[in-house]
Amino acid sequence: MLGTLALPALSATPASAATVPTAATATPAVSCHNLPPLPYAVHTKAVTIRSKASSKSTALGVLYKSHKFSVSKKSGNWLYITDKTTGVKGWVSGTYVYRDVRMCLD
């Protein structure tokens, strides 16, 4: 009976003394949290460009998924954009135009 109790205690000592490289020592020093945010993208086929940050304002044009554009300011859930493909400036809904979320696997 005493030998049975001593055997698990002896077998546990070498296993805990062994050094195994951990994921923390194997990962690079650069974390994905330090990377710049992803660019804005159109997440539907097309979005109406409006004169004001309101869905009831005048439509100025259409921003398609294939268009190049830049975002200069935000107001609530609205983004003021410049459509570089057509030259139209105006407001689009942040419901359809937003940044993708970067997935960090730490």
UniProtKB/TrEMBL annotation:
Q: Which residues form the signal peptide?
A: 1-17
Residues forming coiled coils: none
- Which controlled-vocabulary keywords does the entry list? Signal
Q: Where is the SH3b domain?
A: 46-97
| Record's keyword annotation contains Cytoplasm | no
Does Signal show up as a keyword for this record?
yes
Q: Which superkingdom is the protein from? A: Bacteria
Q: What is this protein called?
A: SH3 domain-containing protein
